[in-house]
Design goal:
121 residues, three-stranded antiparallel beta sheet, 6 strands, flat
Amino acid sequence: MIRLRAVALTIGAAAAALTLTMGTAQAAPGDTSTMCSSSLTPGGYVDVQWWNSGGCGSGFNPNTKKIMQLTGYPVGTVVNACASTWPPAGWTIVSSFYSAGCQYSAVPSFDKNSWQLKRVS
């Protein structure tokens, strides 16, 4: 019985990982997805919003984030993103500002927590 559970858990985890990989690989520029903050933001994506959700655990820290695909945007495109992850290659920080939707800390402040990014290459 224990082996059966272990096999089922392994197959389930592999299927979940495959689904996540397939979902992010086929995303178009500007597509968004929601994920728990315990997972790293995939390459080519930026965080665009943070909040607290019971689906990702409990506590005072914002634990859920919306991520947006930047790969595929043309040079010159400008987007806003949370400063919780670095911009992908080819993107540069144009300015920084405060956004209530980008509070990714348990200790909120009015410090600049967002960036305006521009595709440069």
